[in-house]
Amino acid sequence: MEENKNILDSLLVRKTEVPDDDYFKSLKESVISSEKVKIIPFYKRKITWIGAAAAVLFIVLLTNLIPKNTEKQNEQLFATVEENEISDYIEANIEEFDIEMLAEFLPEQISPLDTLKREIIENTVMEDKIPLEEINEEDILKYLQKEGLEVEELEEETFI
Amino acid sequence: MSEFPEDSELIRLFSSGDKNAEKAFSIIVEKYGKNLYSQIRKVARNHEDTNDILQNVLVKVYRNISGFKEDCTLYTWLYRIARNETYTFLTKENKRLISDFDDPFLEIAAGTSRFEQIDSEEISRLLLEAIDLLPEKQALVFQLKFLEDLQYNEISERTGTSIGALKANYHHARQKIEEILIERLNLLK
Questions:
Q1: Which of B88, B147, B157, B85 is nearest to A12 (CA)?
Q2: Which of A42, B9, B65, B121 has the fewest CB atoms within 10 Å distance of its CB?
Q3: Which chain B residues touch A19 with a CB distance below 8 Å?
Q4: How much is the mean pLDDT over chain A?
């Protein structure tokens, strides 16, 4: 009975047509020649990675040397700046400087109090030597600025 | 007696490199090329795709045979590569579901009425799908016995499995395939 017969027994397998020997010979030769002449991508070569590692190491060493030289150069540059240029700069930007920070940079033997005393003495000496009428307006304004006083404020006080 | 060297000898020859590797590879292609072609062709369905797949398989064999651990026979290893490469290729090319066989490898025997609804192409496709569902060993034995019509001693030599074990494998494979085909054929009715 057909129903009892297995399905597979009702099937015939056709022989697969296989190419001749020449096909396999040329296939084999093409595989061998393609594998022999294989170009290794740049990133897969060991020498690329060794070179990259050497370059990184070189850059790291170089970077570590540079800051010391730069610091020395900066010190040399600062040494060439005139003192009066420095004091002019400080005067012009005095408000931006932190007083405590400035005090840090004063020489140890000079205390801020000594500086102030010196200023007062200098001012007093100046007053003795130069009559008031002969004092330059500009000098007055500079002095007032130095003391942190505004002309407008003084004028107001006078009127009051 | 086989005219070709033993597989272990081929592997040793390949590992010695250069000209010996080429010689060993040539022998492997000569020894197994036609079987691999036949195996691939049944699934790939046309010569062009079979050629591309077989080329990929042979390239993989050439590159990896030095690392072959001999935990199975060389032919089992080749079969595995061919099977995987075939499915990868067809999936990539989106061809797995198309049943446009140049030449269906199965024919329905004359006088069979149970296949009224389907033709050779369809039954070939159904059988391939059923084989896909088998464990690798059973699929290999079924392919070599049913589709390639090899004798048990030849299959034993290729797979390194005893004839008794092969017969058991084949019996189980046939049973499973029968069940799957009956189920699929019933669905088509």
A1: B147
A2: A42
A3: 37, 47
A4: 74
